[in-house]
Each structure stands twice: as C-alpha cells, then as structure tokens.
Amino acid sequence: MRAAVLTRFRAPLEIARLPEPDCPEDGVVLSVLACGVCRSDWHSWTGSDPDVHLPHVPGHEYCGVVEEAGPRVTRWRRGDRVIAPFILACGQCPACAAGNQTTCPTQIIPGFTHPGAFAERIAVARADVNLTALPEAMDPALAAALGCRVTTAWHGLTGRAALRPGEWLAVFGSGGVGLSALLLAKAMGARVVMVDVVAEKLSHARAHGADAVVNAAEVDAPAAIHAITGGGADVAIEALGIQATTASALRSLRKLGRMVQIGMPAGPHVNMTLPMDAVYSGQLAIFGTRGMPAWRYPSLLSLIEAGAVDLSPLIARRVALSDASAELAAFDGPTPPGVAVITDFTA
C-alpha cells in the first residue's frame, strides 16, 4: 500500500510502498477515505512527541471503509463506513468502565504509538468498543475531523467545562480546534470571542459567527475580553498549547471561570509559568482534556444531523498524500483559516 513515512524529524515525508497491515483479532483494516493533517501531527514531525519512533506513519484523524474484520469483531463487517477516535481504549479497565476511555492505561493511538492513517489502509484494534458508524450523508473530509479536532472541542465544552447557553466563551487560537469550538459553542447558545494574531483567521471566525474577535498582536487580549464581556469570559479554551496563550486564557476569565487546556503542550512548553495569583484570587477551575470517549459520539452526531451546526467551514483544503509534508511544515508559522484533509491517497 502507499503511505507517507516519517524517516527523519523535520524532513519531508517519504512516499513509500509498505506491506498491507495485518488485521487485529479484535479489530479491522480500513481503506482510508480521509485523514486530517493536525497540529498534533506536527509535534510528531518535529520530534516533540516521545511516543514516536522512526520510521513512522503519522495520521490520527481519519475515517474509512472496513475491508477486513477480525474473528472477535461482532459489530462491523466489510463495507461499513466508520469513524475512529484517535484514542483506542480497551473497554474493560476501571477507567473505561467509568466512561473515561480517554484515560485508559493501555490506550492505542494510531499515528503516535502505532502506524497512522497517512496511508491507503490502516489497522484499527479494539473495533467494537471504539468505532462509530459514519452517517451516510456526511462528507468523509468532515468525518475525519470527528476523530480529533471536533470531538476534542465538543468534549472540552460539554464534558469538561459544561458550557451553558448565554455564557461567554473565549477561544485562544482559531485553528482546527478553535474554529470547531466556535461553531459548536454558537450551536449551544453561547457567545464567543475568538483570539488570534492572524487577521485573516479572525475575519474567517467573524464571518462564521464569532460575536467578537481580538487580535492579540495589537492589544492586551485579557483586558479586551474583560471589556467585551463585561467582567471576563465564563469559559476559556486554550487551543495552541503554549505558555503565552495559556496565561492569557486564565487572565481572561471572570471570577469562578473555567479554563480548558486543549492545546498540546510540547517541547519548551511542557513546563509553563502561569499566573496562579489569578487562579487563586478568581477561584478558577482548570481542566485538561484530550480526545473524547467513544460513547459520547451520538450526542455530537445528533447535533450535526439535526442541522443545528454546520461544520463545513472547517475544511479549507483537500490535498493529496504527497502534499502532507508541506502542510506539516506550514505549522512552523501562521497558518491560513481552516484545516487540510488528505482525500487523495494516489497522488
């Protein structure tokens, strides 16, 4: 099969022919329909993720068609179209039994701990407890985003911060996760302030429902948010994983506000200096989040299928497998609005 392989950090991916993946006894082999190119993949590409060992096939945000099912699989068969979360939980441990599959101690993460979906096919273990049917009418490019960015934003807003209608949400970073948070929060009845340093991204966010935008390169973002919201945001989303935006997100909150760390801290940002005085005096809550448990897919899919939210503004570029290297390198600087999705695995 054709795949894009990371053989050296910060080097172009090598387009290579690899052996077909073996089907796990409890899993499936998918023909990949679409795979997003995510900032988390960039962390792998730069060598910042300790789980990644070379050579390696990236790609964790994917959907596909079942080509083969293992003997222990009961829910899926050849021809089924499915979405896969990027964290494959075991479904049997105490964490999974409590509904917290994203904290499963034996989790499998294609694209990081195992070969990913920058390839024509991918082996997906633990299929019965993780996969979700891809709605017939859903664009595969959009469905791929339900493996990471959209689901992570949804779980951060609903499963962690418990965002309520009428509340103010401040989103720091208007990339894939940030734009997802905007679209979902508006569907939930919240008011949203988007923060970025790229004017084009802020214009895109404004065009798709943001109540206000703040260019952090031009003004003090927390002060601007306090003025816009009349005292600070109720909830803040940090969607970049860097110290400056995490500190600003905390300072943007009103008393008893909630901040959700969605951006992945890596490299020099693994350890951050944060304004704990604001946490203490404001009695703030800080939540970490990573992915979404598979059992929560129906709540999100019902929102989408009911027409309550249009996520199509997320998809900016449909690219070929050979374009993945350029998309990863672009994360070194400011990126344009929207996300790139690999939809052509033959070029």
Description of the molecule:
The protein has 347 residues and is α/β, with parallel strands linked by helices. The chain has two domains: 2-148 and 293-344, Quinone Oxidoreductase, Chain A, domain 1 (Alpha-Beta Complex); 150-288, Rossmann fold. 28% of the residues lie in helices and 23% in strands. It has twelve helices and 15 strands. The chain has helices spanning 39-46, 94-97, 127-130, 140-145, 149-160, 176-187, 199-207, 221-229, 243-251, 276-282, 297-305, 324-330; strands at 2-5, 14-17, 28-37, 62-69, 81-83, 121-124, 132-133, 168-172, 191-196, 212-215, 233-238, 253-261, 285-288, 315-320, 339-344. Strands 3, 4, 5, 6, 7, 14 and 15 form a seven-stranded mixed sheet that branches. A six-stranded parallel sheet has the order 10-9-8-11-12-13, sandwiched between helices. A two-stranded antiparallel ribbon has the order 1-2. Helix 5 crosses helix 6. The longest helix is centred in the middle third of the chain and has 12 residues, at 149-160. The model has no long low-confidence stretch (mean pLDDT 96). InterPro entries: ADH-like_C, ADH-like_N, ADH_Zn_CS, ER, GroES-like_sf, NAD(P)-bd_dom_sf, Zn_alcohol_dh. Its cofactor is Zn(2+). Keywords: Metal-binding, Oxidoreductase, Zinc. Residues 8-342 form the Enoyl reductase (ER) domain. Belongs to the zinc-containing alcohol dehydrogenase family.
Task: Compose a concise summary of this entry.
This protein has two domains: about 1-150 and about 295-345, Medium-chain alcohol dehydrogenases, catalytic domain (Quinone Oxidoreductase, Chain A, domain 1), CATH 3.90.180.10; about 150-290, Rossmann fold, CATH 3.40.50. The chain is about 30% helix and about 25% strand. It has twelve helices and 15 strands.
